[in-house]
Design goal:
The chain has 42 residues and is an alpha+beta fold. The chain has one domain. The protein is 40% helix and 14% strand. It is built from 2 helices and 2 strands; from the N terminus they run αβαβ. The chain has a two-stranded antiparallel ribbon. It is elongated, with a radius of gyration of 11 Å.
């Protein structure tokens, strides 16, 4: 992970979804609003 990005996420309270990009259909599903992977809320 990128420490700077994690700091911004934490400071801003941005909900972040972590997904596996293999298969690429996971990315499409996430962009379509499906809740897959891990949701991190700081």
């Amino acid at each position: 992970f990128d420490p700077l990005t994690l700091a911004v996420i934490k400071r801003s309270g941005i909900a972040t979804q972590v997904i596996c990009g293999r298969p690429p259909s996971n990315v499409r599903r996430a962009l379509a609003g499906e809740r897959i992977g891990t949701l991190v809320v700081a």
